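can u do me a favor
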């Protein structure tokens, strides 16, 4: 089932999400719905608040992005021997970040029509449960780490625009106001903020 994606201004996007366990109602269907919604929107990551669920769950697909990139782009965006992932993250916690940072453009399915430069750590260590609720601790790099950080922040009630300078946010005020009013151009179903 494809769900509408919650749009900037919806209060669920600013909630700190709660941990879940395998008894969460219809968790298998929720995870499958998230993957279907992500694929329909042609995105690389989706967090549960983006389908109106304030739970610590997100999905990441950097494999498709890798497949579409040129060899030169792969060198810039991916670590050596990394071809991207398709992974479900439950109750994630980022436990370490590299000192090395990098800046590149970032967008968000909940903030259509906006794409901004964001600086993030190049690598992260993350502890989480996979779709079978098995404990995992892994290190991710580059583009994959960026998507994970972006989606993880959704479960903390944060958005990528929170990383922008006050001056840059001021410049974007009119665009954000248009999004709040539902004046967006998205190729996927959306749920307005009211």
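np, heres the sequence
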């Amino acid at each position: 089932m494809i769900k509408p994606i919650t749009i900037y201004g919806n209060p669920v996007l600013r909630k700190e999400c709660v941990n879940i366990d395998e008894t969460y109602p219809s968790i298998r269907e929720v995870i499958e719905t998230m993957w279907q919604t992500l694929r329909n929107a042609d995105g690389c990551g989706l967090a549960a608040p983006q389908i109106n669920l304030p739970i610590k769950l997100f999905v990441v697909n950097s494999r498709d992005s890798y497949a579409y990139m040129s060899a030169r782009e792969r060198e810039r965006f991916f670590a050596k021997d990394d071809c991207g992932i398709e992974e479900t993250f439950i109750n994630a916690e980022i436990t370490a970040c590299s000192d090395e940072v990098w800046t590149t453009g970032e967008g968000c399915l909940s903030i259509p029509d906006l794409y901004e430069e964001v600086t993030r750590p190049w690598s992260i260590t993350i502890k989480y449960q996979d779709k079978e609720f098995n404990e995992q601790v892994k290190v991710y790099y580059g583009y994959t780490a960026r998507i994970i950080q972006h989606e993880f922040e959704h479960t903390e009630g944060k958005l990528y625009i929170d990383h922008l300078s006050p001056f840059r946010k001021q410049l974007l005020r009119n665009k954000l106001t248009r999004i709040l009013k539902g004046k967006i151009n998205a190729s996927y179903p959306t749920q307005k903020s009211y």
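The chain is about 30% helix and 25% strand. hope that helps!!
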